[in-house]
Specification:
By secondary structure, the chain is an alpha/beta fold. It is built from 11 helices and 7 strands. A hairpin with a 2-residue loop joins strand 2 and strand 3.
Amino acid sequence: MTEAAFSNETSSDVTRLLNNRSFVELGARQRAKALLDAGSFRELLGPFDRVVSPWLPKQGIVPQADDGVVVGKGTLDGQPTVIAAIEGAFQGGSMGEVGGAKIAGLLELAAEDNRNGIATRAVLLLETGGVRLQEANLGLAAIADIQAAIVELRQYQPVIGVVAGPVGCFGGMSIAAALCSYLLVTQEARLGLNGPQVIEQEAGIDEYDSRDRPFIWSLTGGEQRFASGLVDAYVADDIDSIANQLRGLFARGSNTQQRSRQHAWFLQRLSQANTAEQLDAAAVRDLYQGVKP
């Protein structure tokens, strides 16, 4: 490559980066609006409705007016779409009674639309550590309602989960993510059943050092999850790129090979793992890709 060609390519890369609009840096409400058709977003149970958690003030915690969950209706490419966005900056995006009910109710509303002949699909922006410990069983029940609503709606229309970062998606909400028709992640995303701090607390720092960011992302980061076949699309942190990927996934229609129906395949792969030693990122990829050790 000549010096001039190298200079032009570098300049092109810089221009492309400058033109990118970060999705990760947006708040939940901004994310929801950014992905739907311009001007179509209509929020349901917004902050001025003052539907807040009744349990947090009892424990000395200031509640948030929307309980950290933004839900609304709009269109994507002109098609009716419901969208729910979890605010990771509030209580780590944890799911309580109110926030969970908002998401479950939204998905049930979309299912009702479909039963009435209105083809409504769903997007879930998952930025959550899982159940809100301060609401314990109520939060778990809410997550169970979300999971049941996803399974119901995906019979009619695709339900697409998006994990962008920086909180990631963990706990019971990672199970909800796995129930989605399709999953879309960025490089900044993380997806796993147990969060790094939880694993370190239970198994010790020698097993899982939650401060070792390269190690954490190498196992549960978006790129690794995509390479392992556990998510369906991997995209840069850019609003337009994520929106285009969403359109492409919706264009596939309902997924007839739901990941949650392939449990036998996953169990067979996991049975081959050597738990006597810690797996590295390459070994995990080989395991899910069916490469013999």
